[in-house]
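Q: Given only this backbone (133 positions), what sequence would you predict?
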């Protein structure tokens, strides 16, 4: 008596593997993007910390859109990581009121292949929130 799998059994196994792959691949791509964005968010957090120190030093006399190198004191490669570079970060608005706290907008632009293309860290009265564009 011969032992083995029939053609139908093999086709069912191939079908099941195909269905699992069709579901798993998009999920994995989402996880990969989220992992890459964690680097971008960490860099934006570093910029936010530098912006808070800058505001504490200057008080209400801070520049409305401080430059990362000239105003916040970053070296040319301080924010360069595996996926995001220093050019990925921009402070587009900043103000400081000693009573209310820091208000700022930090825009992070992802390199090609990472979605979404931009995320914005908004700081209002020292409270930071993320939005995706």
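A: Predicted residues:
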């Amino acid at each position: 008596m011969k032992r083995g799998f029939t053609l139908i059994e093999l086709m069912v196994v191939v079908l099941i593997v195909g269905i699992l792959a069709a579901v798993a691949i998009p999920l994995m791509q989402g996880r990969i993007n989220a992992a890459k964005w964690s680097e971008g968010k960490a860099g934006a957090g570093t910029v936010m910390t530098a912006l808070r120190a800058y505001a504490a030093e200057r008080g209400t006399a801070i520049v409305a859109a401080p430059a990362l190198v000239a105003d916040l004191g970053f070296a040319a490669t301080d924010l360069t990581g595996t996926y995001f570079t220093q050019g990925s970060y921009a402070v587009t608005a900043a103000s400081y009121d000693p009573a209310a706290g820091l208000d700022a907008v930090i825009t992070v632009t992802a390199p090609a292949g990472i979605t979404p293309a931009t995320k914005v860290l908004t700081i209002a009265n020292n409270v930071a929130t993320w939005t995706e564009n």
